[in-house]
Amino acid sequence: MYPCNHGVMGQTSFGWSIREGVKTLPICMNDAGYDTRLFGLSHEGINDPAALGYQHVEHAHPYASTAAEEVTPKVIDFLDDFDADNDKPFYVDVGFNEAHSKGPSDEDAYNIKHGLPPRLSFTHPDGTYHRRYSPDEVTVPPYLPDVPGVREELADLHTIITSVVDVAVGRILDKLRETELENDTLVIFTTDHGIDMIPFAKSTLYDPGTEVALIMRYPKSFPKGKVFEQLLSGVDLLPTLAEFVGTDSPTDIDGRTFLPLIDDHSYTSRESIFTENTWHGAYDPMRAIRTERFKFIRNFYTYTSFYFRDRPMEQERQVLQQFIDMLPIEELYDLEKDPYEQNNLASTMTFGSYFSGGHTPANPEYREILNDLRKQLKDHMEETNDPLLKGPVPHPAYEHLWDDIE
For residue 96, is pLDDT > 80? Predict the structure, then answer.
């Protein structure tokens, strides 16, 4: 489901939670006869991850650390104890906190930054997967200023992925191989948003914020090393897995299976995908439609909040001030000519210039495309009963504002 339908329209730590009655993926897997387990991070409820339908919650947020170095050994212990002949098949969700913030701990972040290895308690037995990056060897994307602080942050982010996440995933894959479960296990590596704590990425609807990893590995029948270029959406994952295990999908979902794409059966590609952001660290209501070539964003508020990693980025903050201004009401990008979404082809009209003027009109060459995408997005919001069409979406705490607070 899209967030406007399942209810998580903001950070769960700020009070948002999946609405009652939604049939989650673990519930679907329970129906198919699977043992369902959660290890580590989940982002669908406020306090009790078991309410999401998992039969077992092992070392999971909010009761325990979600650092990869602490979650991974629990997963490995489970695989060591699994008996393929007598136990039910398993659906296991493993959630790592990396690469949010600094990585597994302040100590590891300090070590990485200063060229020291992470804590020796979390390494791969044969030393593989580790890769440290220096600021000089990273590529700074055009939407960020090429200044030392930005390079340092990107290098840290790359290093946390390779020295922590790759190690964790590598250890789990090795354990599947060691326990002879590899050929019968579908492994999916994915994320819930784009690049974390980097401006113009997470918490925006630009491609760096909405493009996520999706790697699927099933040695028994999936093609090896094949790359698919079709547009997919996160809402498509549940129906795909439901079909994979032979159970029914809920009837009220927004996604559709892409298993025929993998199996080389008849598959009709999506012509477009829809993305949304409402509340995260702040109120940033925006909706978007993306086709193979174009991106149209509709902003419903005046400003957006940019995310920075936790360590000070004073130099890049100063440079980025030149980019931070009132958002235009609409944004249109030709991704074929402008893949980094730098040249807005829609009007520069903001909420401030709506009545006063002073804005430039939309590029006339793209007016027909703009109107078509605008209509498609509005139709989609109406079809999904998007509450944003009725006005500002209140925070969950709004109804409690006059409660007694001690």
Answer: yes
Q: Are residues 288 and 264 in the same domain?
A: no
Do 246 and 108 share a structural domain?
yes
Is residue 403 included in any domain, yes or no?
no
Percent of the chain's residues with pLDDT above 90: 53
The most confident of 73-77, 112-116, 140-144, 264-268, by mean pLDDT: 73-77
Identify whether residues 253 and 366 lie together within a single domain. no
DSSP-H helix ranges across 255-354: 259-262, 314-320
d(CA 240, CA 390): 32
Contact call for residues 305 and 282 (beta carbons, < 8 A): yes
**Which one has a higher pLDDT value, 95 or 401?**
95
392/233 Cα distance (integer angstroms): 25
Q: Please report the beta strands in 138-271, taking only residues with DSSP state E, as ranges in sequence order.
A: 187-190, 214-217
SS3 25: helix
Give domain status of residue 215, yes or no: yes
Q: Are residues 231 and 330 in the same domain?
A: no
Query: What is the structure's pLDDT at 106?
Result: 46
Task: Answer with the residue of higher pLDDT: 312 or 189.
Answer: 189
Contacts of 302 (CB under 8 A, 6+ apart): 326, 327, 350, 351, 352
Q: For residue 231, what is the domain's CATH number? A: 3.40.720.10
Q: What is the mean pLDDT of the chain?
A: 85
Reported pTM: 0.88
pLDDT at 170: 92
Range of the domain at 224: 3-269
Considering only CA atoms, which of 69, 52, 48, 47 is closest in space to residue 238? 52
Torsion angle of C-alpha atoms 161, 165, 171, 177, degrees rounded to 10 = -90
Answer with the residue of higher pLDDT: 19 or 281: 19
CB 304, CB 284: distance < 8 Å: yes
The count of structural domains within the chain is 2
| Cβ-contact 337, 288 below 8 angstroms | no
Q: In angstroms, what CA-CA distances link 403 with 16, 17, 282, 398, 406? A: 18, 20, 22, 10, 10
Q: For the chain, how far is it from start to end, CA to CA, in angstroms? A: 37
